[in-house]
Specification:
Elements: H1 2-13, H2 18-21, E1 24-33, E2 39-49, E3 52-63, E4 69-78, H3 81-84, E5 88-96, E6 105-112, E7 115-124, E8 127-137
Antiparallel strand pairs: 1-2, 2-3, 3-4, 5-6, 6-7, 7-8
Length: about 140
């Protein structure tokens, strides 16, 4: 519920109308616990117009001991109708521990017109850092 509250605040801050906010949907929220004991929430909320996403916000947040959260990453985007039908960026795919450090690397899928791109991020110093970006298009 803390992540949903953050999503609503981000949408309002970016001038998403109250009528559009009625259509907010949770794409996926997962909790990941790292080997070093920290837990993270990874979530994505979107607002659709018919079959296309119009706006989305993605989050990575650390779960605090008092059940609060500390945001590490937040990405808001308004999509054009053409791109929105494909889905935009920051679709959570999974986590891996690349070097057995106990710090999860997060895999996201970015979907655009006629393309699919994967990006791996690592959580470092309370932010996410891109480690790898790759993919291609259908051409």
């Amino acid at each position: 519920s803390n992540l949903l509250k953050e999503a609503v605040m981000v949408f309002k801050k970016n001038k998403v109308s109250a009528k559009e906010l009625e259509n907010i949907s949770e794409k996926k929220v997962v909790q990941v616990t790292a080997a070093k004991g920290k837990s993270y929430l990874i979530g994505r909320y979107s607002i659709k117009k018919e079959h296309a996403e119009k706006h989305y916000v993605s989050f990575v947040a650390e779960v605090l001991k008092n059940n609060g959260i500390k945001l590490i990453h937040s990405k808001f985007e308004t999509l054009t109708e053409e791109v929105g039908s494909y889905g935009g960026s920051f679709h959570f795919m999974g986590i891996i521990d690349l070097d057995n450090s106990g710090i999860p690397a997060i895999l996201f899928h970015h979907i655009g017109f006629d393309s699919g791109i994967y990006e791996i991020f690592r959580i470092t110093d309370d932010k996410i850092e891109s480690l790898f970006l790759g993919g291609g298009d259908a051409c």
